[in-house]
Amino acid sequence: MSVLFDGLSLGAIYAMIALGYTMVYGIAKMLNFAHGDIIMVGAYAIYTTMVFWGKGLWVAVIGAAVLCTLMGILMEKLAYKPLRGASPLAVLITAIGVSYLLQSLAQLIFGVTPRPVNLGSFGSVEILGASIPVSTVLTLVIGAVLMAGLTLFVNKTNTGRAMQAVSEDRGAAQLMGVNVNFIIMITFAIGSALAAAASVFYLMQIPLVEPLLGSMPGIKAFTAAVIGGIGSIPGAMIGGVMLGVIEKICLSIDAIKDYTTAIEFGLLILILLVRPIGLLGKKRREKV
Amino acid sequence: MEMLKVENLQVYYGVICALKGISFHVDQGEIVSLIGANGAGKTTTMQSIMGLIPIKGGTVTYNGQVINRVPGHKLVSRGMSQVPEGRRVFQDLTVYENLVLGAYTQKDKAQIRKDIDEIYSRFPRLGERSRQVAGTLSGGEQQMLAMGRAMMSHPKLLMLDEPSMGLSPLLVDQVFDIIRDYHRQGVTVLLVEQNAKKALSISDRAYVLETGSIALEGAAEDLLHNESVQKAYLGE
Ligand SMILES: Nc1ncnc2c1ncn2[C@@H]1O[C@H](COP(=O)(O)OP(=O)(O)O)[C@@H](O)[C@H]1O
Ligand SMILES: [Mg+2]
Question: Is the ipTM of this complex over 0.90?
């Protein structure tokens, strides 16, 4: 029971990160390799506000959200926007460069030693006979609320519909009067804000910050996004939750726990073999 | 009054020159068509005017203002609208959502609802399929949707790129009826067609485009009876 809850909450974290990958891929048509590092930026923002400035958790969370959102927008404006229309390879290499840049900056400012950051203790609650940490429940509930909010936003607001339009046909969206650059900026902002949320919940589970903190959850979440069908928002949610649950189940079984990561990537390969576009991915009809 | 004026428009795809400096104009209240064979540069012309393809040289003037450097999305709120080649409705969105997107620049919610109702009464088949994703519509229905969607922004200048492409003769007639109808409502029309006969029959004036240059221009009536036009484009 507690394994399931752990898995679901880890899954919620993966899903929140995966949404950033999948939305940026769907709308800007690029793989933002530096997305995982936004989590690291969020984690250091929390570290700085709480440990250096001695502020409370809420200030830290808001600070992380604001900083990550701005970082996302800045990253897009400075690194990716000038490359609009460039070859996908050039964009990908730039994204890898941005990732290294963020990691190196963190190393320069904070050094390489992992630093502990304590978000506070939340205790635990009894759910169906199992003792579940409140942080796990929080991750699940807030994760679900954020994802429901995002789904509503994308499907019910003009900006959300414009995002779907840009994702399907950028030119046609422009002909509707949609400012494509603005929509891409919003997408980066939302993805980065979700990454900030993920960084909070990540630190609740592993209270250590280090410059490479974002890479592993980033890669896992990217895997989740691909499993779910990159470009698909519900796909990223399902892929993330699935991967989180599988990871925690594997880790709870002694015989296979050392192979957890291999099993996860094995699952990715398996799913892509059966369904190359991922679980909920859409095959683009080629236009004639 | 000149609504749209294109002067010496040059557009390149890499090193390939697609438009070699063409000039034409559309006066307010006119229907003007641009005819020409496949690959002549008609779509390039339409898309570069709306900012989808960068312009290399020349000027595009709309209502007296040069719009070469105006971002394409801003032209919609200035009254330009385009039904692109191949319709390009949003396949994964519903009919209703497509129409709402057409009204992206419109703020008046009540007016938007009224416009959608009007489109549904004009095209009952779209009304019946309001909640259906556009990708499931037939080609004709998609064309009607694309034309309805383009009108949602209340354009003053409507540009249509081969609206009759791939449609059955009955639907082609319907498409041209709709264009005439929109025109009667006061919309100025720039029409690109391969179906030259139909296009000329509803136009005031026309230009013939040949491999990136204007080869002929004149009153539609005259071009209909022009021998070389008849040979090349009217199959007579
Ligand atoms: N994306 C593109 N890349 C390179 N060449 C193009 C592209 N689109 C069109 N062309 C070329 O530009 C010329 C004009 O094409 P187009 O404007 O589509 O003609 P039309 O609409 O009259 O059929 C053609 O020679 C075509 O091959
Ligand atoms: Mg064409």
Answer: yes
